[in-house]
Amino acid sequence: MQAKYKEMPCVGGYLDGSIDKVGSGNAKKFAGEDPKWGNKPLSVFQTSDSRNGSFVDLGKVATWVKWSEPTAEALRQACLARDSRISQLPPQLPSVFISRLVVTNSKFLGPVDLWLNRQYNAVIGGRGTGKSTILDYIRWALCDQPASVEDDEVANPSVRQRRLIEATLVPQDAHIDVYFTINEIPHVVRRYAKTGEVLLKVGDGEFTKTRESDIRSLLPIHAYSQKQLSSVSVRVDELLRFVTAPIRQELDTLDRRNGEVAGKLRENYASLQRARDLDAGLMRSVLAEQSLAEQAANLRASLTGLSDDDRDLLNNKPAVDRIRAAASAWELDTNQLLDSGTALVAEIGDALQGMQGLDEGPEVLVKASEELRSRTVRIVSDLGVAVEAALRLASDAVTETGELAKHRRAVEEQLSAFDASYEEVKSKSTAHEVRLKELGQIEAQRKSTHELVEEQRRARKTLGDPQAIYTKLRAELVGLYSDRSSLLTGQCDALTQLSDGLLCATMQKGTGISEVEGKFRAATSGSGVRGARIESLFSALGDETDPVATWETALAELETLVLMGEDGELTSEVTPTLTRLGLPLADQDKVRRKITPDGWLDIALTPIADEPVFEYQTKEAEYIPFSSASPGQQATALVRILLAQGGMPLLIDQPEEDLDSEVFDVVERIWQAKRGRQLIFASHNANLVVNGDAELVIACSYRTAGDQSAGKIKLEGAIDVPAMRKEITHVIEGGEKAFRLRKDKYGF
């Protein structure tokens, strides 16, 4: 039986019941792992053949087979690609995939309406037939890789993409529609060639204008042009994309929160500066008022020829002024509270309107939520009624006939009587005309100064505690920096694991100092601080064990310098961290004379980012900088990572041109990869297309034989379609004759 099995031409068979019951010995034979049986793998179809009239077992055990047409040849092809096309368990399929490409017209390809498979799609064809064009159209419509200022196709593949659009679509006034699905929700992106305008349609909705960045955030495809993978190491941003692409949405969420907190900090800092100015102004005004009060008291004491009663009246002037000011403040506070009460009543009304009942969901939960709503409405309504009642009473009290107005008039009458008596006493001291005039001026100044003090106190009170808010927001911002770093660190670890250790990615804390240094240089430009000194400062910062924590301390000291002003005493005790990092006091003095609070805030809101460092493993536990590895080594490591990652569609134009000789290793990884992400490759390599077992092959050809100025999509289908197998043989293998000649030369 063993000998016969070795010679059997069959590639598959069926089994009654579950494959789990075959035992480990038979399982090794089926897997081709038993040399006694020729190491010949056999695909197995488990079945639930029903052997009774009730058919109770029918459908309990099933096998999933992937084919394009229900033919015997399709079954044979499935058996030859059993790892990819046959499954005894429900197959895994990508949840995010591009389903269709529509180009209204193209000068090169003509109109295109191409449906894609949600797993592995291979685009084949001779050079200049349109393989790369199809991938570039998809990438351009999905706003992949925004254009850079670099006008170099190698350093910036989007340059070639832009030229392609201008040459092939703009003259036709064309637009591209890309249909894609995210978790069963259909989307369509439409992009116009002439204007670049982007529209998005979600589900059954209408097309709405959107931004390129929104499309990239929604569907951040991972795409590479010819030779781009093997040149990734020369572009830090491209290598960084390997770390950020799988976690793009999480990073976007963190960046959005970062922007929100930074915006709040900027707004709060304006309040903080206003509070600081008010505190300083209030302190000056209080001191001025105290000085004026003492001056007035001395002048009153110097007046002679007055009776004891007159002297007592003059001495009561400060107390009377305080009563006058207090009565005025009480009136202002009362009016403000009445306004606040009116606003509160309106707010309560708005809240009650928003407390609508919910009638969807489990009946028990709906009932419980309705009970909660009704009780909430009752409490809030009672609050509104109480506030309205209190407002009516208070409003009545402050009217001209109200209780407060009556008492206020009584106080005003007493104040007027005192003022008249005070002026009468002052007029008795005619011998001190000059002093009386000076006293009148000082009392007028004191009155206006006191009014300024009250105004400043009220303004300061409305600001609350901006310092506490700033401290909280700053801590939140630094926490977001830490969260981002942790997220990237985890992805670096995952990247290293996915490459099987070929690529080692590690995060280094505080290495992204250049942007902060640039902000510092801009803020201190013209201060006289030498550029080498600034470079030395940030170099020392980068050498710190925790650069981010050190920078937070240095920022606080820098703000102290800014707020100190030019006349403040500057010592190393004030700025120990800046001094330790190598910025001498003389340069600190130059800095504080140049940086404004707004300039300091720009520096403070620029994060010191943690950046990944990439290495290539030459042998176990030995690494070299990733940029020092050969292009083939780099590309192989990166392709391993790309095929091990799930999620967004992966588009690569001719990956075989980047890889080293281990192409079949990539093929085996393709079998696993297409379960978790859609693959769209343009390729000349038979291993990638045929052995990679593409679900859909798209064959491109010249529109006119021998004329490479225009291409077309000649054929679409799977490998089990005879016409497609013939086209693959012709395009990739060089024809059947060439294929057989190679086979004979190899001696297979």
From TrEMBL:
Q: Which domain of life is it from?
A: Bacteria
Family annotation (InterPro entries): P-loop_NTPase (IPR027417), TrlF_ATPase (IPR054787)
* Protein name, entry field: AAA domain-containing protein
The organism is: Gaiella occulta
